[in-house]
């Protein structure tokens, strides 16, 4: 991807590769005429927690960081120590920052009401994504969604503050702890990626205005579950193989998504017999990545509709997820539709 160091964005604001995240956040605040700086501060708080978690992930091989924590979370999944550490670090940064009134986390059964009357924002977070890869030194991540509360500031948190469709997000992003650590986010004005310079302790703009290729030749799916895939997925994957697509599956949603966002490709986690509503969680995995995808010209669907149009019904609800280059997602949805029509004949 050819990077134009002085590429202006929609607001005509030019910013150069190498701009620090902090400076970028300040520059971009002008996108919001009535900005009061709270969202900017919240993004900084998330970046700070990401730096701390980055340090911990680098040490994941050491006894006191790696391995199971010995408890299961509300999904019935065994928590890894790093799941718990990341959850604590983000909770602390979000509650200390003062901008947030409530948090939804993969590692918390219920909504965490911060009793912060002045907090304007609700955050949904997957503190550590790709937990099965922690101990084997493969890329992992953090995923976050930010909403403005619906009820008046100072009033008690209500269901309507939490159960908002993804289309209501004011910002979303992910951190990828990989060969390098990156923070990629959107506030609805395009997608920008920052690379962490450990020795300076700073995130620097490295991927301005990310645009996903409209098509690609990479597909990412856990083929071990092929026998359980919903109809249409098998025929779509067969077509990918027919077209000699490359199969790439890391098993960390953030890492698979990031690769396909930059190179062109599609990630699929369909409904299966084991997970009839899919495996991935709507509020703190699918919504954030769907917002990023759409802002980068890509698409995200549950096989029937746009992920961002789904109105949540429960905190940890799951959804099938087809996400990636627009033409590939359209093609996969076409196969699902065809299979449905054939099933009714
Ligand atoms: O092992 P499977 O069934 O292929 O699932 C892998 C998927 O599950 C996840 O690990 C779920 O996320 P968590 O690790 O945050 O629970 C995704 O990152 C990944 O894409
Ligand atoms: Mg996850
Ligand atoms: Mg997780």
For the secondary structure, the number of strands is 15
CATH level 4 superfamily of the largest domain: Fructose-1,6-Bisphosphatase, subunit A, domain 1
- Can you tell me the CATH class of the largest domain? Alpha Beta
Helix/strand order, N-terminal first: HHEEHEEEEHEEEEEHEHEHEEH
Our count of helices gives: 8
Name every ligand kind in the structure.
1,6-di-O-phosphono-beta-D-fructofuranose, magnesium ion
Low-confidence spans: pLDDT under 50, at least 5 residues?
Answer: 1-8
The gross shape turns out to be globular
Query: Which architecture of the largest domain would the CATH scheme give at its second level?
Result: 2-Layer Sandwich
Number of domains: 2
How does the major sheet shape up? 8 strands, mixed
Q: Whole-number average pLDDT? A: 92
Which value, in Å, is the CA radius of gyration? Answer: 19 Å
Enzyme class: hydrolase
Binding site for Mg(2+) 2: 126, 129, 285
Cofactor: Mg(2+)
Protein name: Fructose-1,6-bisphosphatase class 1
How would you describe this structure to a colleague?
- This protein is an alpha+beta fold and 345 residues long.
- The protein has two domains: 191 residues, Fructose-1,6-Bisphosphatase, Chain A, domain 1 (2-Layer Sandwich); 126 residues, D-Maltodextrin-Binding Protein, domain 2 (3-Layer(aba) Sandwich), CATH 3.40.190.80.
- Helices cover 30% and strands 22% of the residues.
- The protein contains eight helices and 15 strands.
- The longest helix is centred in the first third of the chain and has 21 residues.
- It starts with 20 loop residues before the first helix and ends with a helix.
- The N terminus is likely disordered.
- This is Fructose-1,6-bisphosphatase class 1.
- Homotetramer.
- Its EC number is 3.1.3.11.
- Keywords: Carbohydrate metabolism, Cytoplasm, Hydrolase, Magnesium, Metal-binding.
